[in-house]
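Incident review: delayed structure delivery

Summary: a single-chain prediction request sat in the queue longer than the usual turnaround. Root cause was a stuck worker, restarted by the on-call engineer. No data loss occurred. The affected request and its eventual output are reproduced below so the record is complete for anyone auditing the incident later.

Affected input:
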Amino acid sequence: MNRTYGIAGVTAVVLATVLVGALGLRISRTTSDFYVASRTVAPRLNACAVSGEYLSAASFLGVAGLVLAQGVDMLWFPIGYTAGFLVLLVFVAAPLRRSGAYTLPDFAEARLESRAVRRVAGVLVVGIGWLYLLPQLRGAGLTLRLLTGAPGWLGALVVAAVVTAAVAAGGMRSITFVQAFQYWLKLTALLVPVLFLLLAWRADRAPAPAWDQRPVFHRSTEVRVDRPLTVTVREPVGVTVSGTVDGRTVHGVSQRLAEGPHRFGADTTVRFPAGAVVPLPDRTAGRALAGRAEPLSSSREQHGLYATYGLILATFLGTMGLPHVVVRFYTNPDGRAARRTTVSVLGLLGAFYLLMPLYGMLGRLYAPDLLLTGDTDAAVLVLPQRLIGGAAGNLLGALVAGGACAAFLSTASGLTMSVAGVLAQDVLPTLGVRHFRLATLPAIAVPTAASALVGDLPVADAVGLAFAVSASSFCPLLVLGIWWRGLTPQGAIAGLLLGGGSALTAVTATIAGGADPGWPHTLLAWPAVWSVPAGFAAMILISLATRNRVPPGTAATMARLHLPEPPPPSPRPSPRPRTRP
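Output delivered after worker restart:
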């Protein structure tokens, strides 16, 4: 992609985000505006805002990258992302809005009348928020590196600065307008280019990708290796190399790579002929040399059925506990509006996710070299230049880069908003909006610093880990707290610690790359299969053992959650003036 076009696209999105946020700032005046937009956001606007912040880097870049790398089995990701809102609609949306809470810790304290439950819930909200922010910042670094060649940490720093300014300035009222605008920008940034990409694919006689075997280079392809890389060649292939290969430095020399492992040095360019099988990186060597986290695909290849069940449970049940999603339902006027918002979100997400398999299929055909370098998340960004090229390809690439930037900004803004809300209420002294603004700094600074230390775990995989923690902690709390009168504070704490704590420990070990290959890695990488039942079981069993500790106000709280709100009073007609006879 031409760097000038790409930088112009990203800059335009950043400026538009600042301008739209400034519009919200002008009408954001009260503390309630900052936290929940005074609970006056209409369902259609709120649905666009929910979709805007929900469609993160994992959706915009990660799903297509996973389809490219692992095939159509990865469509469980968008199915789960969307179906999670159906579960949210049925079990949680309206009662959660009727609770009158600002955040998930607010709900936990109101339902169970316990500060201890609130503190545990607050820790998990911050943990999930920071875990979810990591792939957004990594995606930002990847995009900026492709556009400018700058190091990845700089992209994360730019996104952190823009998000801090937007959230601290206008709060929820401002972020609502920004995220609604960014949903339509992201949809346009994918829909317009894919129409031209499909026309170019048809002009190329519509080749079909081979999903059941190793991918091949559809065209003669030049691959640049930026850092030392060990690959495994399955079939001998003739290549042209400029750089270092197997310890020898060559310049534009044709040579034959025999079957087996081969080592490329940094800043090496390798040209593969059309029809050559794509060599895949040796993950063990790459992790030892660069500290890279193991992609979850390795465990999927060994234990595919278990991994699929883990993915389904995490995405179906994790949506209801994502702090940046749940907080948006508090901005609706009432429970009925919350349900209408959720139904609209299902349609908006469905329209977006219909496009991702197309990008994954085209990436498998025209960008298989990303499997070799490990940058599969860049498939959406590089396809316009690969298939179309020229000025048209650069313009479409700039549009896609702008959409990717919107994905990082919208989701990072929502996450920062939710984490800052918890920090401002439960960590910093409660001084209203002032300390909410101060809380935005640690809310975004911690994951920004951590993003420079974690490995290159694909963004969709990393988001899937956050979903697993959410499903294991807040799904049991919300479902049982809303629908079971017998939940006690002791049971809630036990479930949050056992379910959410064990899942958080598992995903931390996965990101750090500390698990041995085989079943240990699989159990830690897909923990929802065992951590979600553990969370439910702990809450139910401990609550039954402490049934005399049910909060005294439970009956009134349950009535408030389930009884419909009274209709707003109709305006009384003004009295007619009396006329004299």
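Verification: The chain is about 65% helix and 5% strand.
Action items: add queue-age alerting; document worker restart procedure.
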